[in-house]
Amino acid sequence: MKKIVVCSIPVLFVLLAVWMIGHFKIHPVSGTSMEEKLHDGDHVVVNTQSTIERYDVVGFSLGGESDLYVKRVIGMPGDRIIVANQTMILNLNEAGDLTTTYQVKLSKQTADKLRQLKEIPKDNYFLLGDHLDVSNDSRSFGFVSRSLIEGKIQLRLYPLQRIDTIS
């Protein structure tokens, strides 16, 4: 019996490692768009199997780019939007009316692209950096498809003195 237990430990370790590799990835953060929460050079753990909810911090890549962007989910699929000139009013659908709104200034190109829409399309998200003054986010490149989102950032792993959950 003792031999079975001893032989099982490496097998369990391998199974745990395979599960973790399939569910989590580690990525460096580049830039200052998520300060104060995340800083340039931080390394974060991305849960690739998590459900995305409003205000989650997510990692994603834009088509053809290898860098991982890190932004906060503000707009969810089905949220109503109004685009006038270069301003978008986003109804967060939390109260079912226009009492919970978010107003953002869009680039001209993004405003032109989104103007005809009345809501955020299925499987698309509006993402903003926490440091709005420097962030390259949905205000300039539009909605991000779920297929481009790698997952939810759950943990700052490095630097070791700042290990912390991300919310």
Residue stretches low in confidence (pLDDT < 50, at least 5 long) are: 13-17
Average of the residue pLDDT scores: 80
Helix content: 10-25%
What proportion strand? Answer: 25-35%
What can be said about the biggest beta sheet? 8 strands, antiparallel
End-to-end Cα distance, whole Å, is 45 Å
Order of helices and strands: HEEEEEEEHEHEEE
Overall form? globular
Number of helices: 3
Radius of gyration: 19 Å
The assigned structural class equals: alpha+beta
Number of strands: 11
Tell me about this structure.
The chain is an alpha+beta fold and 167 residues long. The protein contains 3 helices and 11 strands, in the order H-E-E-E-E-E-E-E-H-E-H-E-E-E. The chain has helices at 2-23, 108-114, 138-141, and strands at 24-28, 43-47, 57-60, 69-75, 80-84, 87-91, 101-105, 124-128, 144-145, 149-158, 164-165. The N and C termini lie far apart (45 Å). The model is unreliable at 13-17 (pLDDT under 50).
